[in-house]
Amino acid sequence: MFPHYYCGFYFLLGRGDLLSSRNIIRHVQGFNQYEAELSGRGRKSACGPATMATIINYYRPSKEQHSKWLRKWYKESKANWLGLSAKKMIRSLSVYGTPSKIPSKRMWSEYRKEIDHGRPVGIKFDQWFSFKWFSTHYRYRYHWVTGIGYEEQDEKRYLLVLDNGTKKEVIRKIDFTQNAPILSMIAFHHQDKS
Questions:
Q1: What are phi and psi of 28, to 5 degrees?
Q2: Which of 54, 112, 145, 184 is least surrounded, with the fewest CB atoms within 10 Å of its CB?
Q3: Could you tell me where the DSSP H helices lie in the chain?
Q4: Gap between the Cα atoms of 55 and 28, Å rounded
């Protein structure tokens, strides 16, 4: 059994009728896709493997050097310069537990449930294969991040994510409703298969 470090905050805002909630999983170590021992083109497309490395490392901390750990996941997932599909991520994560794609109609409620149970979620922003080519209001065109929390304020819903594509570990707050048309989410239930 692995400890889950998470903390939920629930509080009332200024007006008594509005409830705001927030929950974030603590102690999730993010990996930078640009640290991978790969070619320049490989590093640019290593956000999916970096998300996988972050999720697996949460349950089974690795002592390997970050660059080697990321290269391992890039090769194991069969990622390429175009990126990593949700199907390939599910296949690769299945070695360590039970991954599943969260259905789009229940995405927010299922995402919240995963976070409330202390389980990081793989999130893919995919404007290209969602055929939303010309829209400019999405946070990323094509990028994997690790979902580690959420926040609800009034009628707004926000994802709290670790962005693998930055030099330093950054938690970003992203509007869920605005980005939902291009999102795919992978839930992961760890099982010790060693």
A1: -100, 115
A2: 112
A3: 40-44, 47-59, 66-77, 86-93, 107-116, 176-179
A4: 8
- Backbone phi and psi for residue 145, each to the nearest 5 degrees, phi listed first: -135, 170
pTM of the model: 0.80
What distance in Å separates the CA atoms of residue 184 and residue 131, rounded to the nearest whole number? 14
Residues 186/98, Cβ–Cβ less than 8 Å: no
Domain extent listing, the chain: 13-190
Write out the chain's pLDDT in tens, 194 residues: 333 333 444 433 333 444 568 889 988 988 876 676 665 555 556 677 888 888 988 998 888 777 777 777 767 776 666 667 888 889 888 988 999 999 989 999 999 999 999 999 999 977 655 545 566 665 555 578 999 999 998 889 998 989 887 766 688 888 888 888 878 899 999 876 54
Distances 126 to 3, 46, 133, 147 between C-alpha atoms, Å = 32, 15, 10, 15
To the nearest 10 degrees (0 to 180), the angle between helices 47-59 and 66-77 is 110
CA 103: distance to chain centroid?
A: 15
CATH of domain 13-190: 3.90.70.10
Amino acid at 42: G
Tokens of 162: 């670790």
Give 100's strand partners.
187
